[in-house]
């Protein structure tokens, strides 16, 4: 196995490269309509991130051209303090997120151990961090931003997206106030997934490795962002409202404080522009998910068989277009998913899954400890999101084992 980071000097993890990008004021496509024309830039740990990019077949030159494009920089500065994800329009594999300076420091501090974990776990489900940068227009504010892998491709036929933490207090979308393209939460979740036995074992094993790493780093509050799609041959059978093809999910969830997708993320210039109406989230596609024909089941089993023969194939990666069968189950109550199938019996349907563990840089700091102490007085401490990293990792893994099952 090629060692990508072993020979890097410790200085590489503290290095930074500075340069200036110039744009013509008179250019109608100029980044900023105000007086700015020159931007001071800093790329943190360029040698380190160059190797991470190589690990995932991202060309460094293409990467730099993508994040320095006029459109990308315009979107970064128009985001202000909004930390939602912004798709890199010129590269479908990347998204950027504006981050506060404190989070940038946390990322750099965790970077050496993060790199080692990625190298030792090539199938890691952690979202891939491709770079940390800042840009400052002459006479303007300094903006820090990070670049991540795009979890859900723009052309995927997504009809449900969930952010799952394994907790249940406050983990439900308020339907009367829900907006289109809302990311659903744990208490909205009503599916169980059946996977090929080899894939199931590999998946839960990798989730454990990733959670052990995050626990050791003192990290909590992460989520499994999962997009559920119908196989390509079933696209025509899905209601046009249920297309989620415009949504992107990086290491930061592209979600505002009210739980809705940021408007910047909705129009990426890829695929259709139709959206999901989350106010109907409990019923949308319910009939579709609660039934399938025997031919559909056999079709999924044939795909599973192909993967079983080559579980380590370079063409297959955990969480990237993973075939599964699914059934609807009752909503999670008090941290448990119902063990019974839907009222219609053992019906199921074929789906394709895209997922990753996101929001992986939140430490269990003083603010989180105080939040835990306060909420534990009012609620069951097991039900709240804010718990210590060890308890968080254990609960998260328990929840993952309840929603992913072996397809016999």
TrEMBL record:
Annotated Low complexity bias: 273-294
Keyword terms, alphabetized: ATP-binding, Kinase, Nucleotide-binding, Transferase
Region of interest called Disordered, as start-end residue ranges on this chain: 249-315
UniProt signal peptide: none
UniProt keyword annotation of Iron present: no
Pfam families attached to this UniProt entry: PIP5K (PF01504)
EC number annotated for this UniProt entry: 2.7.1.68
The protein's name: 1-phosphatidylinositol-4-phosphate 5-kinase
Extent of Polar residues compositional bias: 254-272
Residue ranges occupied by any PIPK domain in the UniProt entry: 1-404
This protein's record includes keyword Nucleotide-binding: yes
PROSITE patterns: PIPK
């Amino acid at each position: 196995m090629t060692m990508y980071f072993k020979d890097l000097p410790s200085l590489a993890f503290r290095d930074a490269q500075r340069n200036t990008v110039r744009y013509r004021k008179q250019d109608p496509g100029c980044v900023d309509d105000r007086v700015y024309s020159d931007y001071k830039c800093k790329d943190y740990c360029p040698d380190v991130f160059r190797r991470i990019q190589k690990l995932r077949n991202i060309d460094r030159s293409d990467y730099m051209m993508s994040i320095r494009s006029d459109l990308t920089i315009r979107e970064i500065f128009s985001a202000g303090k909004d930390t939602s994800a912004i798709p890199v329009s010129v590269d479908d594999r990347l998204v950027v997120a504006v981050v506060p300076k404190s989070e940038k420091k946390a990322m750099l501090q965790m970077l050496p151990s993060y790199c080692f974990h990625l190298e030792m776990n090539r199938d890691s489900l952690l979202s891939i961090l491709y770079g940390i940068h800042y840009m400052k227009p002459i006479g303007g504010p300094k903006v820090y931003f990070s670049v991540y892998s795009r979890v859900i491709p723009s052309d995927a036929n997504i009809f449900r997206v969930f952010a799952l933490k394994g907790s249940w207090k406050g983990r439900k979308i308020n339907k009367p106030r829900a907006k289109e393209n809302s990311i659903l939460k744990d208490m909205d979740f009503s599916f169980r997934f059946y996977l090929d036995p080899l894939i199931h074992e590999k998946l839960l094993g990798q989730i454990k490795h990733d959670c052990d790493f995050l626990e050791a780093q003192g990290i909590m509050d992460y989520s499994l962002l999962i997009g559920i799609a119908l196989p390509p041959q079933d696209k025509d059978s899905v209601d046009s409202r249920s297309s989620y093809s415009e949504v992107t999910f990086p290491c930061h969830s592209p979600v505002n404080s009210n739980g809705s997708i940021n408007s910047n993320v909705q129009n990426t210039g890829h695929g259709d522009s139709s959206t999901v109406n989350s106010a109907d989230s409990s019923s949308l596609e319910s009939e579709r998910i609660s039934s399938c024909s025997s031919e559909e089941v056999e079709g999924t089993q044939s795909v599973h068989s192909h993967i079983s023969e080559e579980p380590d194939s370079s063409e297959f990666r955990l969480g990237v277009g993973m075939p599964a069968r699914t059934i609807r189950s009752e909503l999670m109550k008090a941290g448990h998913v119902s063990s019974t199938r839907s009222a219609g019996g053992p019906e199921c349907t074929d789906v394709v899954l895209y997922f990753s563990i996101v929001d992986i840089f939140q430490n269990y700091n003083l603010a989180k400890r105080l939040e835990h102490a306060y909420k534990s007085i009012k609620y069951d401490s097991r039900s709240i999101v804010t718990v210590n990293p060890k308890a968080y990792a254990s609960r998260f893994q328990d929840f993952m084992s309840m929603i992913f099952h072996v397809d016999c």
